[in-house]
Amino acid sequence: MKAFVFPGQGAQFVGMGKDMYDNFAEAKSMFETANGILGFRITDLMFEGTDEDLRQTKVTQPAIFLHSVILAKTMGGKFCPDMVAGHSLGEFSALVAAGALSFEDGVTLVSKRAMAMQKACEMHSSTMAAIIALPDETVEKICSEVEGVVVPANYNCPGQLVISGTEEAIDEACKRLSEAGAKRALKLSVGGAFHSPLMEPARVELAEAIEKAPFSRPVCPVYQNVSTVAETDPDIIKANLVKQLTSPVKWTQSVQHMIADGATEFIEVGPGKVLQGLVKKIDKSMNAHSIED
């Protein structure tokens, strides 16, 4: 069974999507539709901008979403998922690719998500850190003992857990996790504490937009970050999507459930090759590869 997976923030690069725009009329039309919805020419920044342009949350998230979704569309019959999943932002790409959400509504929601997250980031001095080579339980325990907001945010693969919170709490947690034997406790260059309680203002703002958007039953099960199991009910999908901003991304558990449910091949659709690497770390026997253009 084929599982198609979609990357999240961090996979962007200058020039992303230009080959599709130049070579496929349908791709060009979708990009231009997105320019109109967003109110600025994101294609100019994707194709010819700077790394700094692409690092702005309001650009990064729609850019990765567009690259992934339009790529799935240009694959035609080769996009034949038995199941889909996306990492954080990638969940929106997965839902549109699987027909649970229209392209236009997907662009609108991703843009609102990016803006709401940017605003929430500006309210606190906050960040994230990657913790390498410690059991999840150890990281969870130490985070719970640190004063202030610091929580597990991304369960990427065994031995790689990203934590999220205020600058002070992250610094203290990194110190204690290093003392507990972490090979690395590395602060990340991100805009703020994604997937933590500090994203509550963004969750409230996005919830309203998600509630108004029409969702349909997807063509195949979607394994969501919050529940980690196969979902097809539009109401459950919406509820999980609302919770996603303040809840951890349980990628390890999602991939394990996909494998248990019969996935034998993982195809990463979109920029970068991060997810195929994580899948192989979760299960070495898996056939995992990526399609970038």
Order of helices and strands: EHHHHHEHHEHEEHEHEEHHEHE
Radius of gyration: 18 Å
The residue-averaged pLDDT reads 95
The dominant shape is globular
The main sheet orders its strands as 8-7-2-1-9-10
Work out the strand percent: 15-25%
Give the N-terminus to C-terminus distance in angstroms: 23 Å
What is the share of helical residues? 40-55%
User: What composes the largest sheet?
Assistant: 6 strands, mixed
Number of strands: 10
User: What structural class is derived from the secondary structure elements?
Assistant: alpha/beta
What would your notes on this structure say?
This protein is an alpha/beta fold and 293 residues long. The protein is 49% helix and 17% strand. It is built from 13 helices and ten strands. The protein has a six-stranded mixed β-sheet, with helices on both faces. The chain has a four-stranded antiparallel β-sheet with strand order 4-5-3-6. The relative contact order is 0.17. The mean pLDDT is 95.
